[in-house]
Amino acid sequence: MDLKTATSLRRLRLVSAPEAISFLLLLVCSVLKRTTDFNAVPVMGMIHGVLFVLYVIFWADAWNRANWPLKTAALYFVLSVLPTGGFFADRRLRREAEDAVIASRARKEGVVGA
């Protein structure tokens, strides 16, 4: 993988955790709306919607650049629609991006087998 691929994975990783947090906050706001007079669902819904759209855009870019198999791409998409899936995606993407940077540096330095 090249540095552009690593950058695309990093972008996806950076939006995955906030998207997961916003999803959990939206769920909490939904419960509070039903049980109290507190109604932050419209605001939290918009924030989560923007973060989800960013996640999908960055996911499509990462899928294109990293040449993931369909199974891997589907896994990252499914993780985006699970309430805590973004945290798992973040962890996997961090490892994948680090591996991409290491491989790119090894190729740049001419290390055999990279």
The largest sheet, given as strand count, sense and whether it forms a barrel, is: none
Query: How much helix is in the residues?
Result: over 70%
Q: Could you name the ranges where pLDDT drops below 50 across 5 or more consecutive residues?
A: none
Helix tally equals: 4
Q: Averaging pLDDT over every residue, what do you get?
A: 88
What structural class do helix, strand and pairing data support? mainly alpha
Distance between the amino and carboxyl termini: 10 Å
Overall radius of gyration: 17 Å
Tell me the series of helices and strands, N- to C-terminal: HHHH
Number of strands: 0
General shape: elongated
Provide the number of structural domains. Answer: 1
| Percentage of β-strand residues | under 5%
